[in-house]
Amino acid sequence: MPSKIAQIRLVSSHPQVYPPCDDSYALVDALLADRTKLLEHHPTICMEVGCGSGYVITSLALILGSESQNAYYFATDVNPDATKVTRETLEAHGVNAELLTTNIASGIEKRLSGMVDLMVINPPYVPTPEEEVGNSGISAAWAGGENGRSVIDKILPVADNLLSEKGWLYMLFLAENDPLQICLQMNKRGFGSKIVVQRSTEEETLHVIKFWRDPDIQIEENEGGSSGKTGPHRGWEFLMSQISRLSFRETRQ
Ligand SMILES: C[S@@+](CC[C@H](N)C(=O)[O-])C[C@H]1O[C@@H](n2cnc3c(N)ncnc32)[C@H](O)[C@@H]1O
């Protein structure tokens, strides 16, 4: 499989489109690391938000390959040049996908609500002044606002809405985005999480985290909520139980 990934040809590029970089490679490496699980998962609807050059969604389609003939691909980007480059990358590799130039998933969120089995996202995560967020050119590739979280915090509830009962989300974060806090936030929405890839370069530490709906987490939260404990003691217990889940819990996911 890695040989096929290495064969991804960047047939098209544009000065306003983010080319594949270390973060793109980390996300694809996470998908490759989970290839067997992904094939057993049999995702029908797969989606990338923020597709850029198309490297990640094309890699995903090649990873799933002919063993997932029923898979249907969607990709969005706020940058019209990115959807154009992604179209050319996908076509060069014989992959069909529905592409949309839109903000996150506007325009398809209603249609795909609760239907997406697999989402992959390398969002704009770099901490920047808030004014830099919200463009649709190349700066949209990195401008993440305060703590790099402005766009991320808008994407997460949309992902929750789109993901099916068996839906999995692979999303890339920078250490400065406070991934633990993001996991706790997703935890409250009923998602389990684990780090699939962690990588440090001279400039940054990247985490690819996988999220899935975990009914046990919801039960635990309800139990905690009905215990009547409030305030710092309850908060501390909750945080510690979640940290042990995130760091040490063996999961089948
Ligand atoms: C870090 S780049 C990743 C590109 C590509 N997925 C990759 O990994 O190489 C982030 C991408 O998200 C897009 N993006 C930023 N904000 C967005 C939004 N609100 N909705 C959709 N796409 C967005 C950017 O235009 C950019 O292409």
From TrEMBL:
Pfam annotation, one family: MTS
Domain of life per record: Eukaryota
Keyword field contains S-adenosyl-L-methionine: yes
CDD domains: AdoMet_MTases (cd02440)
Biological processes, Gene Ontology terms: methylation
PROSITE patterns: N6_MTASE
Subcellular location: Nucleus
Gene Ontology cellular component list: eRF1 methyltransferase complex; nucleus
Chain ranges of the Methyltransferase small domain: 45-127
Keywords assigned: Methyltransferase, Nucleus, S-adenosyl-L-methionine, Transferase
Gene Ontology molecular function terms on file: nucleic acid binding; protein methyltransferase activity; S-adenosylmethionine-dependent methyltransferase activity
The keyword tRNA-binding is annotated on this UniProt entry: no
Family: Belongs to the eukaryotic/archaeal PrmC-related family.
NCBIfam families, A to Z: hemK_rel_arch
The name this protein goes by in its record: DNA methylase, N-6 adenine-specific, conserved site
Species whose genome carries this gene: Artemisia annua
